[in-house]
Amino acid sequence: MASPFYFVFLLSVLLLEQTYASPNYREALSKSLLFFQGQRSGRLPGDQKLSWRFSSGLSDGSSAHVDLTGGYYDAGDNVKFNFPMAFTTTMLSWSSLEYGKKMGSELQNSRVAIRWATDYLLKCARATPGKLYVGVGDPNGDHKCWERPEDMDTPRTVYSVSPSNPGSDVAAETAAALAASSMVFRKVDPKYARLLLATAKKVMLFAIQYRGAYSNSLSSSVCPFYCSYSGYKDELMWGAAWLHRATNDPYYTNFIKSLGGGDQTDIFSWDNKYAGAYVLLSRVCCPSQPIKIHRHNLASPFTNTFLWQRAVLNKDNNFEPYKQAAENFICKILSNSPSSSTKYTPGGLMYKLPQSNLQYVTSITFLLTTYAKYMKSAKQTFNCGNSVIVPNALINLSRRQVDYILGVNPMKMSYMVGFGSNFPRRIHHRGSSLPSRAVRSNSLGCNGGFQSFRTQNPNPNILTGAIVGGPNQKDEYTDQRDDYARSEPATYINAAFVGPLAYFAGGRSP
After folding, report:
1. Signal sequence span per UniProt (predicted)?
2. Using an 8 Å Cβ cutoff, are 52 and 433 in contact?
3. Bridge partners, residue 311, by sequence
4. Are 407 and 414 in contact (CB under 8 A)?
5. Cβ–Cβ < 8 Å for 410, 465
6. Is the peptide bond before 224 cis (omega within 30 degrees of 0)?
7. Which residues, 6 or more positions from 232, have their beta carbon under 8 angstroms from its beta carbon?
8. Separation of alpha carbons 477 and 494, rounded Å
9. Residue 133: inside a domain, yes or no?
10. Is residue 373 part of a domain?
């Protein structure tokens, strides 16, 4: 029997739905993908819609005599950090794989956003044998400047990992991105998909053979910006899980089992992948959705009628522990679960950490929505203590987080730039805050942009679709450019949000 908490929770959600109109999820989905155009590095195409951006980083890689142009700037700076970029790519790919049928015309835009990253990641993996390039741009030098990406005059230092300077975390995440994206392109561009998958296998083998954290190899070049705080075991599990899904090769099954259990985490992010791996592996653990198969009705030889029967794909018990781990993770998220370790603001937003909290909200919301989808397909529930958790409980919580980000919150502010009438106008983002080259063609230099940084004027360029770090634990948000912990957007915030937006834009059916 379901606990009283569940019925109270469900009633509160139903009452809430009667008090406001749902945001336009399809518009939000479109804008969430458009955002990635604002983060592009390299030579921009003729169909670039955010016209205030221009080509940049055209000599990236030249110091190492390789072509490393392309990819994305991670956030409001002009550095290409491959660790979060690869995670961004994996999450965009997972979104397309799970929710592509609900995306409509935005599926093609999702593929474009993915390919902008994978083209670059392929260069990083294939440019030099025995080496994986993992970033471009000196972050310490870059962060001392406030200049447009088109004007960069800071060192475009190239960073790599190798057998003598390993980086299992960034390599396995790169493998995950390439494997996941290979499935996105499998039908629409088989040749490209094969290249992605073949490269993913090689990079994953590199990650397995040469163990070590890239933070140790690259030190101040990646820390404190994107240190691998959780270590590299989570990425090894995550990368192997994606290669297992892409290939169904028993090698990856055995490798995952050899890693043993992972952390009982209550977070999911560009750094800590355990929860994502648990949910992904639970997909093959649990029975798949019943499917229809047909046989000719031999009793009626003069007709072309068919008998329909329902079949369930075999369950893979190898991954049962990860299904349990996924449910333990979710129990840590639900507010009234006896094992909950997640705080909520008075307005109902998950609150994990002060630094860019919405990155955790979007990532966890993706997992809630996706696990609920798997539960519906398998017609399953699970327990948190004495509470029976049904799929709609997770969906309703996901929707509450999505709606909060889109403006249904105490501030009545959309935390997606350009969505609604009240959204952040002074985001911590160099290109958005400085005059476009279309307006001012001469270079501003390293220090020339700080006047724009300090002004209280709104940013002149709207970075449509960007999701900022978000409000504090009291639902308060001050629209200040220098408050980077709350006002800076990032690719990995948006990437995880695409899936839930697609789910709600396309209706709630699995």
Report:
1. 1-21
2. no
3. 291
4. yes
5. no
6. yes
7. 167, 168, 169, 172, 207, 211, 212, 213, 214
8. 19
9. yes
10. yes
Which candidate, 352, 345, 350, 375, places its Cα nearest to that of 365?
Answer: 350
For residue 356, the domain's CATH number is 1.50.10.10
Catalytic residue among 74, 142, 169, 479: 479
Task: Give ∠ CA 268-272-276 in degrees, rounded to 5.
Answer: 50
Q: How many domains does the chain have?
A: 1
Which SS3 state, helix, strand or coil, does residue 363 take?
A: helix
State the CB neighbour count (10 A cutoff) for residue 423: 21
Q: Which two tokens stand for residue 450?
A: 């700080």
| Average pLDDT of span 21-46 | 97
Task: Name the residue among 64, 83, 74, 384 with its Cα closest to residue 229.
Answer: 83
Residues whose CB is less than 8 angstroms from the CB of residue 371 and which lie 6 or more positions away in sequence, other chains included: 279, 282, 326, 330, 394
| d(C-alpha 225, C-alpha 76), whole Å | 13
pLDDT digits (tens, 9 = 90+) for 348-380: 999 999 999 999 999 999 999 999 999 999 999
Tokens 């018990």 map to which residue? Answer: 317
Helix 190-209 vs helix 106-126: angle between axes, to the nearest 10 degrees? Answer: 50
Q: Which residues touch 34 (CB under 8 Å, ≥6 apart)?
A: 49, 50, 109, 464, 465
Is residue 303 situated within a structural domain? Answer: no
Owning domain of residue 276: 4-292+315-505
Q: Which of 428, 429, 475, 483 is catalytic?
A: 428
Residues 6+ apart with CB under 8 A from 152: 56, 57, 78, 137, 142
CA distance 451 to 489: 21
Residue 20 has a pLDDT of 65
Report the SS3 class of residue 168.
Answer: helix
Q: What's the predicted TM-score (pTM) here?
A: 0.91
User: Which residue has 């983002």 as its token pair?
Assistant: 429
* Phi, psi (degrees; rounded to nearest 5) at 40: -65, 140
Active site residue 479: yes
